[in-house]
Specification:
2 domains; alpha+beta; 12 strands; three-stranded antiparallel beta sheet; 24% strand
Length: 194
């Protein structure tokens, strides 16, 4: 398969700093859900957004023609076919003048494209699903982190959380029984930087 093609979609996590992105990622994995938002979506439709980008290309950066981006290199990877079955679709790139030409049931898919006025977000290859929250688990999702240091930190923080939880259960249960509540780190981690 060409490195430009992919069977997956990536929900990128944004934040002011790497530390903010890290804690948002931890919260998403703990909750096992992505919350819909209305940012950059004309009409105020609540959607969860994705990029159709292969991990192979992500290693070169997820940037526009000018080299800029508003995204981190962390995210949740989900199968395109799975999201499609739930109602996810690619964005329809067009001018804002054409928004009202879309049937009401398609307007959540509108993405602004107006190259004569310098507006071109087609590099994002955006997909959306109109939903308040998207529930997933480790049987369907993978996690993109920048490198092995991020991966190791996620695993260590998970183990620390599990140690704390088992210690709390040990206050009211036998140690052997409390240990049965320990959960293994089960997420598949992929590195965005190689």
């Amino acid at each position: 398969m060409s490195p430009d093609l992919t069977d997956n979609l990536i929900h990128f996590i944004r934040g002011e700093s790497d530390e903010t992105v890290y804690w948002k990622l931890r919260q998403i994995l703990y909750e096992q859900r992505l919350r819909g938002g209305i940012g950059f979506i004309k009409g105020g439709y609540r959607c969860v957004c994705f990029a159709e980008l292969s991990v192979a290309l992500l290693r070169h950066g997820f940037v526009n023609k000018g080299g800029g981006t508003r995204y981190s290199t962390c995210g949740i990877v989900l199968p395109k076919a799975w999201l499609f079955e739930l109602g996810g679709r690619p964005v329809i790139y067009q001018t804002d003048k054409e928004f009202d030409d879309l049937p009401e049931s398609y307007r959540w898919r509108h993405g602004r494209f107006d190259p004569s006025n310098g507006v071109d977000f087609t590099w994002e290859r955006e997909w959306r699903i109109q939903i308040d929250e998207l529930i997933f688990d480790n049987s369907i999702a993978e996690v993109i982190v920048p490198d092995s240091e991020w991966a190791e930190r996620l695993r260590q923080d998970h183990e620390h959380d599990q140690d704390y939880g088992v210690a709390q259960y040990s206050l009211v249960l036998y140690d052997e029984l409390a240990e049965m509540f320990r959960k293994e780190f089960a997420w598949t981690l992929r590195h965005s930087r190689g």
